[in-house]
Amino acid sequence: MRKEFLQFRTRYGVIYPYWLNIDLHGDLVKVFIEYLKSQVGKTAGEINRDILGYVTSNKKLAVSLYETMIRYFFCYSSEKGKFMTYTPSELRLLLFKKVSSKYGGFTSWNERSIVLKELINELGLKMTVEELERHLWSNEKREEVLNLKRDVTVQKAIGAYNFEMLSCFLKYCSSLHLKILASLNCSEKTHKVFSRFLGELKARRILFEVLKEKSAVKILVYGPIDIFNKPDNYGTAISRVFASMHPFLRETRLWAIDFFLLLNNKKLKLYMRPSNLPYIWVPQSEVHKKNKSVEEFKRKIRGHLQRSTDLELKNYVELENIIFVPDILIKKGTIDICMEIIDSAKTEYLGKKLKLLTKIYQKGIKLLVLVNSKVYMLFKDAPFKVLMYEKRKGKCFTSLKEINKYIKSLN
């Protein structure tokens, strides 16, 4: 969603978004769905999108809802490849050459169908003159045909719209605080929210810290404004965490989320609570967009370490008033050894990551960091132990002997 189409009001520096819900907007969304379904098979030039603007007086809502529908449920596509391997551009070039060589570069309107018929025969195309005529320009925007991409329901469309709005807000987010209103020894449901949220953040390589407060645990997530000093699609990765977490957030009420935004050069806040949690939906393909190569690399190293009988795998380590959640945590006797895996990324992100890891190292944690060879130079002078790994054809490789050597050196 584009920033200019965000729907919200502000009061005393707090944003109140106009999320869609099925009770208030169900009928409106249903009209959009039925109209677009009725236009499937037509070209963009044949579809009158202005009609959707008359369904609601809110023009911003009409445009952003239409764009959400096209992104997730419908799509415009050309018919190239439908008949043979010739693209519309290739066919236009062949037609131009034929007209130039045989007809002197110009044909009358009456001769046009004759030329097209000759081209069909020469290329062995199985289509009529009318089909070729349409296919010649099918990769032009106005000639692209509307298709149904996946099954669409009113509730899914509402969830997708809310996801798009949340993603846009998070592009302008400096930080967000998720507070679990309980200690680590909380109920199973609340602990599931805490553990799942941390797991999702780690899998998507989101930068965060976990702080212990009185009878509460706070997860501080760093947003794109804090890391890059400008809006960035990094915020979309955070919004995918919420899409994945949505069912778990509905299971318990012991949480609160505060978003800190810089929108239109104003510092604003957005509060999300169990009472105002919007319905969010995105396709599973969006939810599962993670760094698969790093996740596989992590599983490989964990599997290797599990074969050592003197090592114990853990999830997190508690330090004074903070909790550190590394990619891999092993316990050797009384020593906690934290391992982090860093892939190639933007320099600003890596600089922030280095600061956070140095902060943890200064608290006395044994830290081993595996760094992609492409960005190794940024970490070579780090105060903690750094090993380099190679990434080839989407897979990560490192010396397991070096890892074993470092672990054995710690007594």
Q: How does this structure look, described?
A:
This protein has 411 residues and is α+β, with helices and mostly antiparallel strands. It folds into three domains: 3-75 and 150-285, no CATH class; 88-138; 292-409, Trna Endonuclease, Chain: A, domain 1 (3-Layer(aba) Sandwich). Helices cover 42% and strands 23% of the residues. The protein is built from 14 helices and 17 strands. The strands form three sheets. Strands 1-2-9-8-5-7-6-12-11 form a nine-stranded mixed β-sheet. It has a six-stranded mixed β-sheet with strand order 10-13-14-15-16-17, sandwiched between helices. A two-stranded antiparallel sheet has the order 3-4. Strand 13 and strand 14 (335-342) form a beta hairpin. Helix 7 (154-171) crosses helix 10. The longest helix has 18 residues, at 154-171. The protein starts with 7 loop residues before the first strand and ends with a helix. The model has no long low-confidence stretch (mean pLDDT 83).
- Describe the largest sheet: 9 strands, mixed
Q: Which percent band covers the strand fraction?
A: 15-25%
Integer-rounded radius of gyration: 28 Å
Number of strands: 17
Mean pLDDT: 83
What order do the strands of the largest sheet run in, or round the barrel if closed?
1-2-9-8-5-7-6-12-11
Short recap of the structure:
The chain is an alpha+beta fold and 411 residues long.
SSE layout and pairing:
Blueprint: E1 8-11, E2 14-17, H1 22-38, H2 50-53, H3 59-72, E3 74-77, H4 88-103, H5 109-123, H6 129-136, E4 145-148, H7 154-171, E5 173-180, H8 188-203, E6 208-213, E7 216-222, H9 224-228, H10 234-249, E8 255-263, E9 266-272, H11 284-287, H12 292-306, E10 312-314, E11 317-319, E12 322-324, E13 328-332, E14 335-342, H13 347-361, E15 366-372, E16 385-392, E17 395-397, H14 400-409
Parallel strand pairs: 2-9, 14-15, 15-16
Antiparallel strand pairs: 1-2, 3-4, 5-7, 5-8, 6-7, 6-12, 8-9, 10-13, 11-12, 13-14, 16-17
Helix pairs in contact: 1-7, 3-7, 7-10, 8-10
